[in-house]
Amino acid sequence: MSTGDKIDNKAEELKGKAKEGLGHATDDESLKNEGKADQVKGNVKQAAEKVKDAFKN
Questions:
Q1: Predicted model pTM
Q2: Contact in structure between 19 and 31 (CB atoms under 8 Å)
Q3: What is the model's pLDDT at position 31?
C-alpha cells in the first residue's frame, strides 16, 4: 500500500468521524449515518490495499 493511499484512506475515516460527531452534536441522524458510512469506506479501502500488498509479496 502506498503512503498516499494510506493517507487518503485515513483522511476519509477521520472525515467520517468528524461528520458523525457533528451529527451527534446537532442531533442530525442523516449526518451521523453519513459519517459512519465514510468511516466504513475508509476501512474497507485500507483492508483491500492490505490484501493487495499480501499478494505482491
A1: 0.79
A2: yes
A3: 96
8 Å CB contact between 21 and 31: no
* Total domains, the chain: 1
CB 47 within 8 A of CB 25: no
In the numeric block, which cell numbers belong to residue 13? 475515516
For CA atoms 43, 45, 48, 49, give the dihedral sign: negative
Structural domain span for residue 46:
3-56
Residue for grid cell 477521520: 14
Mean pLDDT per 10-residue segment, the chain (57 residues):
81 94 97 96 89 80
